[in-house]
């Protein structure tokens, strides 16, 4: 059988000190050459239990304008719920390949859901050192359980529990982001499709890599979602680009990492910025992450919110359906 999954390639290259050339990035991308060391700047960390809501709004607004990314602590999702989410995901990826292939992406299908390896057209044919699993976790009408692992048996209940808790955090985030722009609390979420908002879960699995200095996990990109809320495991790897440098994002136990995606950048008419980020891999340890992409439904038209546009601030983006935006992004066509 053709070796397709990075997990298989990793297990074969364990005792070597090389990786297949497909995974060696060009020099201007290699983490060993391009990472800023001795970081003086750090992605903002925001405590959501602060009784001063105005302060939270100010911090989130500032972080979203300056960085497009921040971490939140005391967000209300119990530690146990996050621990279980990580446990069932890890158990799934540790199953034999044949079992994982039962929920594989359907070849040739437009649907991104399922177990897979490559997501979009690769730049210069270079590959990322990562496998993934995608499936929708909310709303119930959009869920297709065909792409949810049956094993471990508690996978479904655990993921549903996380989805339920995450909705509370997401609603709060949209509210704070609205207030940070002087909008009504519901305006940002309404712009994203309101209750039809889609929660797309992704699990990234980055096996140990013999040459982490030469490879990347996920290549540099911005998320096409509105907002992405991510749970990492304890192995660092996420990097963000700011003022010409790549910075490591520090691991904080039980924190959630919130990314501003392209759709919020568009709705805010670029007041908030969609963060450019990538991931590095590790020589000995397996990195995993659980981002949930909060996306508008396919038919939702997204453009700058009219209140944010005037003569001094003309619209910076076209208004278009999310499905058309997604098609261009995945096929690397101009928007
Ligand atoms: C992604 C992504 C970051 C991470 O999957 O879009 O940016 O920390 N992942 O794994
Ligand atoms: Ni991303």
Automatic annotation (TrEMBL):
Pfam families: 2OG-FeII_Oxy (PF03171), DIOX_N (PF14226)
InterPro entries: DIOX_N (IPR026992), IPNS-like_FE2OG_OXY (IPR044861), IPNS-like_sf (IPR027443), Oxoglu/Fe-dep_dioxygenase_dom (IPR005123), Plant_2OG-oxidoreductases (IPR050295)
Cofactor: Fe cation; L-ascorbate
GO biological process: coumarin biosynthetic process; flavonoid biosynthetic process; pigment biosynthetic process; response to molecule of fungal origin
Single GO molecular function: metal ion binding
Keyword Oxidoreductase belongs to the record: yes
Source organism superkingdom: Eukaryota
UniProt keyword list: Dioxygenase, Flavonoid biosynthesis, Iron, Metal-binding, Oxidoreductase, Vitamin C
Fe2OG dioxygenase domain boundaries: 197-296
PANTHER family: OXOGLUTARATE/IRON-DEPENDENT DIOXYGENASE
Family per similarity comment: Belongs to the iron/ascorbate-dependent oxidoreductase family.
Protein name in UniProt: Flavonol synthase/flavanone 3-hydroxylase
Organism: Coffea arabica
Lineage: Eukaryota, Viridiplantae, Streptophyta, Embryophyta, Tracheophyta
């Amino acid at each position: 059988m053709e070796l397709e999954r990075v997990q298989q390639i990793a297990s074969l290259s364990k005792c070597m000190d090389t990786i297949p050339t497909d995974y060696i990035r060009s020099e201007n991308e290699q983490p060993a050459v391009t990472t800023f060391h001795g970081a003086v700047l750090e992605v903002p960390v925001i405590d959501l239990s602060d009784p001063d809501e105005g302060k939270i709004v100010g911090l989130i607004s500032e972080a979203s304008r300056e960085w497009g990314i921040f971490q939140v602590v005391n967000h209300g999702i119990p530690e146990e719920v996050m621990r279980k989410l990580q446990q069932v995901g890890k158990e799934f990826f540790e199953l034999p390949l044949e079992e994982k292939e039962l929920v594989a992406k359907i070849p040739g299908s437009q649907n991104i859901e399922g177990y897979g390896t490559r997501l979009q057209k690769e730049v210069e044919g270079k590959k990322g050192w990562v496998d993934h699993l995608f499936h929708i976790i909310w709303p119930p009408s959009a869920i297709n359980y065909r792409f949810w692992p049956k094993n471990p048996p508690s996978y479904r209940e655990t993921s549903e529990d996380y989805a339920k808790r995450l909705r509370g955090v997401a609603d709060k985030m949209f509210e704070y982001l609205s207030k940070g722009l002087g909008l009504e609390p519901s305006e940002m979420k309404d712009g994203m499709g309101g209750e039809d908002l889609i929660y797309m879960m992704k699990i990234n699995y980055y096996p140990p890599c013999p040459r982490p200095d030469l490879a990347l996990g996920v290549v540099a990109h911005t998320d096409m979602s509105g907002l992405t809320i991510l749970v990492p495991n304890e192995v660092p790897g996420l990097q963000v680009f700011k003022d010409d440098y790549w910075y490591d994002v520090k691991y904080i136990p039980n924190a959630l990492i919130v990314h501003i995606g392209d759709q919020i950048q568009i709705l805010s008419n670029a007041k908030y910025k969609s963060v450019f980020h990538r991931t590095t891999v590790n020589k000995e340890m397996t990195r995993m992450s659980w981002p949930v992409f909060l996306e508008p439904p396919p038919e939702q038209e997204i453009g700058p919110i009219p209140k944010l546009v005037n003569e001094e601030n003309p619209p910076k983006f076209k208004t278009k359906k999310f499905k058309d935006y997604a098609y261009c992004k995945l096929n690397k066509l101009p928007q």
